[in-house]
Amino acid sequence: AAHGCDSSKAIQQAMRRLFPLICAGVAIAPALAFHHVIPYSHAPMRRTGLAASDGDDFIPMSAEKRPPPQGGDMAYIRENITRQMDTYLQIRKAGWPDDECINDCYVRNPQLSTFFFVGKVARCTGTVSLQQCVARQWNLIEEHATRLRPIELGRCFGTCEVWVAPGDSEVQLSSNDPKIRLQKMEGNVDGYDSVNNFEVGLNLEVVTNRGAGFFVVRNEDGMVPPELMQ
């Protein structure tokens, strides 16, 4: 009798331990029976604006599945930024003291009169025009500008205007020298897509958290407003 009592107690203890697991299995079983589980690598993505059935699952895209950034060899990634910076330094060193190979670069929201300094471009003057130099590196310039000035320029990506000034003319522009005029560039000019990336360079501006950045106010034609002339 004592042996039977011990066996009964052992069974009760075992059931006590198994009971939560049994309950959990009962709760999960219907979900597994009626829910279609989709492997991660083949799961459909729910897209905004497209009709989705009730059975669709939203599964975030992993870094491996994320498409490459747009812009080709001028996509806004570290490799391209570093390469264009190195090329800029090489062209500047080879062209010194000829400053015609260097131009200061400004970006503007078409709705504002403020032109924000975003860096400097360099080019091989014998083979590349200034317009081709800017157009070839347009994506890097605009992408960087929207990150440099997210409030003023972030929402107008795709419509930003790029303007240039003579190289190293920041002091003259800051003093509103009327002899220094900004020149508007275009993103699509003849022959720009045939320019090799080693023929043009780009030195992008860096602003710390405490820095306000450099900008100037100009008219629609790039000239100093009369009220700002000294």
Tell me briefly what this model is.
The protein has six helices and six strands, in the order H-H-E-E-H-H-H-E-H-E-E-E.
What distinguishing features does this structure have?
230 residues, alpha+beta, 6-stranded antiparallel beta sheet, 6 helices
Describe the overall structure:
- By secondary structure, the protein is an alpha+beta fold.
- The protein has six helices and six strands, in the order ααββαααβαβββ.
- The protein has helices spanning 2-34, 78-95, 130-136, 138-148, 150-153, 170-174, and strands at residues 102-108, 114-123, 161-166, 183-184, 200-204, 215-217.
- Strands 1, 2, 3, 4, 5 and 6 form a six-stranded antiparallel β-sheet that branches.
- The longest helix is centred in the N-terminal third of the chain and has 33 residues, at 2-34.
- The radius of gyration is 31 Å and the shape is globular.
- Residues 19-61 have low confidence and may be disordered.
Q: Number of helix segments?
A: 6
pLDDT average, as an integer?
80
The general outline is globular
Run of helices and strands:
HHEEHHHEHEEE
Ends: how far apart?
113 Å
Helix content: 25-40%
Radius of gyration: 31 Å
Overall number of strands = 6
Largest beta-sheet characterization = 6 strands, antiparallel
Question: Which residue ranges are poorly predicted, with pLDDT under 50 across at least 5 consecutive positions?
Answer: 19-61
Give the DSSP E fraction (strand runs of 2 or more residues).
5-15%
**Which structural class best describes the helix and strand composition?**
alpha+beta
